Amino acid sequence: MSTRPPCREVEEAPDSGAPATFGQLLRAHRKQRGLSLAQLATRVHFNRGHVSKIETGKRPPSVSFAEACDRALDVGHTFAPIASALEAAARQQQGWVQPGQLPPTKRHFVGRQDFIERLDRLLQRQEESLAVPVAVINGPPGVGKTALAVQWAHRAVNEGHFPDGQLFVNLEGPEPGAAADPVDVLGDLLRAVGVPADRVPADLDQRAATLRSYLHGREVLLVLDNAADAQQISPLLPGSSGCAVVVTSRSRLPGLLSLVEPVTLPLAELRRPEAAMLIRANIGDVRADADPGAVAVLAERCGRLPLALVLAAEHIVSHQHRSADTLATELGPEQARLNLAEGDVVLRNAFATSYKALDEPSARMFRLLGRLPGHLIDANVTAATAGVTQDEASRLLRGLAGAHLIQRQDERHYFMHDLLRVYAADLARQLDGEAERAKAVRHTVEPVAVAVRPSALESLVA
Ligand SMILES: Nc1ncnc2c1ncn2[C@@H]1O[C@H](COP(=O)(O)OP(=O)(O)O)[C@@H](O)[C@H]1O
Ligand SMILES: [Mg+2]
Question: Most exposed of 28, 72, 281, 377 (fewest Cβ within 10 Å)?
């Protein structure tokens, strides 16, 4: 058995700047030199039909053909390494070995039905459009982006979608300075689909073209978890609509819009019944039934954030003498909630990776928001409190919303999740001295006295 014949028609090379398949790359180079198919065929000593089939992805390129193209187009070693990798993979595998890289689903996945339905639209797009369908799940740390992507992916696979395999990559986006390099990611992906390590081409474009050629005509799901930015993702995108991509990110990935038309799914905390259900599913009915009211209080104290809920539930399960009630009581003081931990996962650390990625003015603004009372953030009040212009405050708030540390409500107002506000306040206490705090209070009191409740002002000064 050789490589499977493509099962879908080929689309034209994208003009988005995204990398191409071998065939698309060849056509682009040929056109750049003003050569017709027949002229290139003459130069490479293959017939015109053969060149055409390779350009349209209907026939795989041999290494000798690729070498002839390198010479005819005077492009050094552009095509040969790609053909060599493709040929080696096909020979080694005697066909396509399905990669199955999805991590296991969560035992107790709750809610998110509306998002799952929206993700199902990707499958519809797969049928209707030639462009590769992409979904972006974004939201704050611990909100359940990865869990949703993995849950949906397994569901789709169980329903018979993506029969040629599933690739899953952690792009390490949120860790400052740790984001995975697309060259390395492509190397891993190529090895996963069967390219022997010594045949993986060296440079980014060649690796991208090899993967695209390989995925061409196949139905493969690619889950790109924890993406840092659009630049990191674009070389990894397959070219054909038989594939689909689900990206998770703490960022809104603004640059991605110029490459694809993603379905965007902004995730927020769970609804009340779902949050309680998550705790119940993890601690078991007996413990939950002992005090359902305490479970509800605990869910609220965890801000209905899945990560906090899971940590709380695991804590109860691993400590026999703890109940939902005792833990809820312990989490009464807001700051205690940041220390929720199980094993080496600590809630505060999950937030810290997002915070550490901020530049200094944004970080200062984030800390300041922790000192402002209430959930609603008003850009004008914030500007006065921070001692910056309204334009600057709006810019910083937009940036924080882009990193999902706050959520935009309208042009002027934002929300901050309870636990993130507690985290911001905690940082402010640690990092900003008394002088800074006094300055903030001074700026707050006069211009915004009408906008802030007196009790809230008291807590600001306290
Ligand atoms: N809908 C859900 N049902 C059950 N558990 C969930 C759900 N969403 C998230 N979790 C759990 O919460 C924790 C954090 O979720 P995760 O997907 O890692 O968050 P993110 O990727 O947004 O940082 C994980 O343990 C995950 O299994
Ligand atoms: Mg994640």
Answer: 28
- The three-class DSSP label of residue 84 is helix
Q: Is the CB of 247 under 6 A from ligand 1?
A: no
Q: Which of 201, 233, 266 is the last residue of a domain?
A: 266
Domain shared by 365 and 340, yes or no: no
C-alpha 229/C-alpha 226 separation (Å) is: 9
Ligand 1 centre to CA of 427 (Å) is 25
User: Considering its fold, how many domains does the chain have in total?
Assistant: 4
**Token pair 């993406």: residue:** 227
Same-domain pairing of 80 and 208: no
**From CA 119, how far away is CA 100, in angstroms rounded?**
20
Last residue of a domain, one of 349, 375, 409: 349
pLDDT string in tens for the chain (462-residue length): 334 433 333 334 444 455 588 999 999 999 999 999 999 999 998 888 889 989 988 778 888 899 999 999 999 999 999 998 888 777 666 555 678 999 998 789 999 999 999 999 888 876 677 778 999 999 999 999 999 999 999 999 988 889 889 999 999 987 767 899 999 999 999 998 888 889 899 999 999 999 998 888 888 999 999 999 999 999 999 987 789 999 999 988 888 887 788 899 999 999 999 999 999 999 999 999 999 999 999 999 999 999 999 999 999 999 888 899 999 999 999 999 999 998 889 999 999 999 999 999 999 999 999 988 877 899 999 999 899 999 999 999 999 999 999 999 998 999 999 999 999 999 999 888 765 665 555 544 443 333 333 333 233 222
Classify residue 108: in a domain, yes or no.
no
CATH number at residue 38: 1.10.260.40
In a domain, 422, yes or no: yes
Q: Which of 186, 188, 211, 198 is nearest to 86 (CA)?
A: 211
| In contact, 405 and 427? CB cutoff 8 Å | no
Q: What is the DSSP letter of 244?
A: E
Domain extent for 321:
272-349
